[in-house]
Amino acid sequence: MRMLILVFLTIQTTFSKIVESDILVNDLKNFSNKRRSEFISLDSVSRSKRQVSTVYPKWTDKTLYYIFDSNISDEKKALLTTAMQRIMNNTCIRFADGSSQTNRVKFTNGDGCASYIGMIGGTQPIYFEDTCMLTGIGIHEIMHALGVYHEHSRYDRDDYITINLANVPASSQSNFKKISSQESYNPYSFEYGSTMLYSVNSFGTGSMSAKNSDYSRTMGLRKGSFLDMKILNTDYDCSCPSDPGCQNGGYPNPNDCSQCLCTDGFGGALCTENAANQVTFTASNTYVTKSINFGLNQTITSFYQPSIAIYAPSGKTIQFRFTSLSNFYCMNGCNMNGVEVKYMTDRRITNPIICCFDNDLWSRLYSTTNNPLIINLHTRVAVQSTVKFQFRYI
Ligand SMILES: [Zn+2]
Questions:
Q1: Among 2.60.40, 1.10.10, 2.130.10, 2.10.25, what is the CATH number of 240-273?
Q2: pTM for the complete prediction?
Q3: N or C: which end of the chain has fewer CB within 10 A?
Q4: Architecture of domain 277-393 in CATH?
Q5: With left for phi above 0 and alpha for psi between -120 and 50, is residue 110 left, alpha or beta?
Q6: What is the Å distance from ligand 1's center to 186 Cα?
Q7: What are the pLDDT digits (tens) for 316-332?
Q8: Which residues does UniProt mark as catalytic (predicted)?
Q9: Active-site residue flag, 141
């Protein structure tokens, strides 16, 4: 017997409506292999008075087979294909035609954006209605099907987010159930920029907030972060026998072990070169002011992330601040457009995303010994944005 439970979370903005996803819960009694999952389960089963164990098989041969339902539009196919390609480019997981397969995913329209966790056997749906049309939501649902749970369900989540169940409707409180460390593991630290994390107040005003308030708008980012991809590699045992010497937080690419998968802003075989779509500057010891326009003349299905790299002499501290941000859309998740100053020492993690002006995050002076300093710019729609900024070294 299977049971489908859907919870729809809606983010209202002045520009678009994005329906968050939830997990489809299945009866796993037929599975005997206990699976360690990197994220703990969102148990949407309280209404059924049952508990779901973390018995979620991975896809065999690291391959997820899929088919498209006839109601999936060409545009949606293109978006989902982009999402799968991004995962293939960054992991050893493969996606392949499931027409002749028994165990497979069927992308189908309707009923929100939702997926089962892991491979449940037979043909399992990923529901992907028209409001799901962000590449990062596609990645979110596919990651569920690959076996990844929500970030806000991790057993260590209380160190990073505050849940106030008094502000959560009783019917939604099961979304915050945690699974013990005996039943799950977290290979990397909590990631506010994970595509598996819901936005603040997803379950009502005052329901969920970031303990580090700098990350309030970052929560809900639908991108598919560096650590999201690395978690998949860890979970599916995608590894290389040796490290060719990856720099700046990169690690060996399981698709080509002589190359590295790089953190945002870096490229080249060893992550020591400029990333694509990058503008570089060299800082001096006095402030220089620059302005950059960025955007992409495509639809909401696209994700475009150019970046800025600021270099300074070795051993210097770089200081950076925005002086203006034009044509930004303030919303939780900054999913229309946003900027990210990657000032934190660990280049793997998502730094706070800026798309609002309701605190000093956007105008703050950032100081970092990261050299180069990377500033990510992103947009998903046909929006042209302008950033003006100053930098120097001290
Ligand atoms: Zn989900």
A1: 2.10.25
A2: 0.87
A3: N
A4: Sandwich (2.60)
A5: left
A6: 17
A7: 999 999 999 999 999 99
A8: 141
A9: yes
> Is residue 23 very low, low, confident or very high in pLDDT (cuts 50, 70, 90)?
low
All CATH 2.10.25 domain ranges in the chain, comma separated: 240-273
The answer to whether the annotation marks 144 as part of a ligand binding site is yes
Instruction: Pick the closest to residue 377 from 295, 302, 297, 284 (CA basis).
Output: 295
Taking CA atoms, 108 is separated from 1, 144, 326, in Å, by: 21, 15, 38
CATH number assigned to the domain covering 10-230: 3.40.390.10
Residue 150 annotated in ligand binding? yes
Indicate the residue type of 7. V
**Average pLDDT for 329-338:** 92
Query: Of the residues 38, 75, 129, 141, which is catalytic?
Result: 141
Q: pLDDT for 238-258, tens place per residue? A: 999 999 999 999 999 999 999
Burial class (CB in 10 A: 0-12, 13-18, 19+), 89: exposed
**Span from the CA of 306 to the centroid of ligand 1 (angstroms):** 27
Q: Tell whether residue 140 is among the known ligand binding residues.
A: yes
User: Residues with Cβ within 5 Å of ion ligand 1?
Assistant: 21
CA distance 46 to 53: 13
Q: Measured in angstroms, how far is the CA atom of residue 212 from the centroid of ligand 1?
A: 22
